Amino acid sequence: MTDRITLAARSNALWCDVVARSHGIATTTDADVWTASTRTPPYYPDAVTLSPTVGEYDVLARVDDSEGCSVKDSWARLDLSLEDFARIVVGEWVWLDPSTTVRRTGGATWRRVTTPAGMAAWAKAWASDPEAEAVLRATLLDEPGVHFLAARPADDPDGPVVAGAVVHVTGEVAGIGNVFTRRGDEDAVWAAAAAAAREVAGGLPLVGWEAGASLDAAVATGCERLGPLSVWLK
After folding, report:
1. What distance in Å separates the CA atoms of residue 19 and residue 28, rounded to the nearest whole number?
2. Which of 116, 96, 93, 104 has its CA nearest to residue 151?
3. Quick one: 108-225 is in which CATH superfamily?
4. Of 170, 191, 190, the residue nearest 178 (C-alpha)
């Protein structure tokens, strides 16, 4: 499982890297950790561990560890509580093998987002508040391997975005994340998002992380649980 977690963690770090750079933030990646030079946008960490053996102070020495710092602990092995961090999220890495059957139900048409206007509609549907709408920018559409997927009602293909996801093809795997729905049907939407993601993933395994009901939906779709991760916030 460790090898798969390493692939999933690195895929997630590469996605964080793309988002951070779209905001003009310098980043660094080595065998142990991905880090951002300054505070990242909301919902994104300042560091992602890439090795199960990296230590707490090795990570913190590479970032601005003042108030607001966040660390994604990919193996849930760090203890940052002594440095006034709180564990705010506990999730699990998931893996969807290309051989696993995924059953997509009807009700929505999934398509790639290809224009700034389409990206604005996607971000508005995904975001929980106006500040969040500015996190994922239209410039991400030009990044290699990045695919935004939007679902609209099957009987109204030009209607509002009702669900969506992001796929980031990163070599051996394709990361799937930011799966959302405006209708509350998480199991059906996760399965539909996974099926749509496969159309752009080129036969690669899909990897990501989820928590709570989203994790349940991913497992119901056919994802394998790889192991825990934690997100720490100061």
Report:
1. 13
2. 104
3. Gcn5-related N-acetyltransferase (GNAT) (3.40.630.30)
4. 190
Write down the domain spans for the chain: 2-92, 108-225
Structure tokens at 96: 């969807």
Amino acid at 146: V
Tens-place pLDDT, residues 220-234? 999 999 999 999 999
Q: What is the pLDDT of residues 107-166, one digit of tens each?
A: 799 999 999 999 999 999 999 888 899 999 999 999 999 999 999 998 888 899 999 999
pTM: 0.96
Closest to 176 measured CA to CA, from 152, 151, 148, 154: 148
* Exposure letters 105-131 (e unless 16+ CB within 10 A, then b): eebbbbeebeeeebbebbbebbbeeee
